[in-house]
């Protein structure tokens, strides 16, 4: 039987003064997409308020919704046993959990580390809890989600998860 294994099994957590970098595994990530505006209304009826713009999130009973495109959402659910709500048959559903690594970067120095890695404004007034940015870390696509004042989740494609981890821990050197 196939066993789900993390791409970060060899990564060593970093814990220092003002910074922690850890794997934030144990999640389900599903992409939802649709073609017709009426499908968005149906999804809203099923899931609750949807994020209005790309880069915004909304809390739903099923999990956290991230608006990744005009007609596209990621549904983030904690744990591996969460169930998807019954969705309209016209909704395109793509499981992403096994294709992503999730790295937690937290502490007062987290914004400084991320600013060394990605060319976006990580100032607290610009990158607030509940927002996210699709960017790159060392030429690797990444989604960085601000989950608290100084807490972030970095989603990287599984094949690059360890490289992104190493880039983040290298960026923490000297802070």
Average pLDDT: 94
* Assembly annotation: single chain
Spans of at least 5 consecutive residues whose pLDDT stays below 50 are none
CATH topological fold name of the largest domain: Gyrase A, domain 2
Helix content: 10-25%
End-to-end gap: 44 Å
Describe the structure.
- With 175 residues, the chain is α+β, with helices and mostly antiparallel strands.
- It folds into 2 domains: 16-24 and 98-171, Probable tRNA modification gtpase trme, domain 1 (Gyrase A, domain 2); 27-97.
- Helices cover 17% and strands 38% of the residues.
- It has a 6-stranded antiparallel sheet.
- Helix 2 packs across helix 3.
- The longest helix has 11 residues, at 37-47.
- The mean pLDDT is 94.
Give the helix/strand layout:
Blueprint: E1 14-16, E2 19-23, E3 27-33, H1 37-47, E4 57-60, E5 63-69, E6 72-78, E7 92-95, E8 100-106, H2 110-117, E9 132-137, E10 140-148, E11 151-157, H3 161-171
Antiparallel strand pairs: 1-2, 2-8, 3-6, 3-7, 4-5, 5-6, 8-11, 9-10, 10-11
């Amino acid at each position: 039987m196939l066993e789900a294994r993390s791409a970060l099994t060899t990564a060593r957590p970093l814990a220092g003064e003002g910074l922690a970098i850890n794997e934030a595994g144990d999640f389900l990530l599903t992409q939802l997409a649709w073609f017709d505006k009426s499908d968005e209304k149906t999804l809203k009826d099923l899931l609750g308020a949807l994020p209005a713009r790309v880069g915004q999130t909304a809390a739903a009973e099923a999990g956290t919704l991230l608006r990744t495109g005009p007609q596209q959402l990621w549904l983030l659910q904690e744990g591996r046993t969460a169930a998807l709500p019954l969705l309209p048959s016209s909704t395109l559903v793509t499981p992403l959990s096994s294709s992503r690594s999730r790295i937690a970067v937290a502490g007062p120095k987290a914004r400084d580390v991320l600013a060394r890695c990605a060319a976006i404004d990580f100032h607290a007034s610009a990158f607030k809890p509940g927002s996210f940015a699709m960017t790159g870390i060392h030429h690797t696509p990444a989604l960085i989600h601000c989950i608290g004042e100084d807490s972030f989740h970095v989603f990287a494609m599984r094949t690059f998860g360890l490289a992104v981890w190493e880039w983040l821990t290298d960026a923490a050197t000297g802070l």
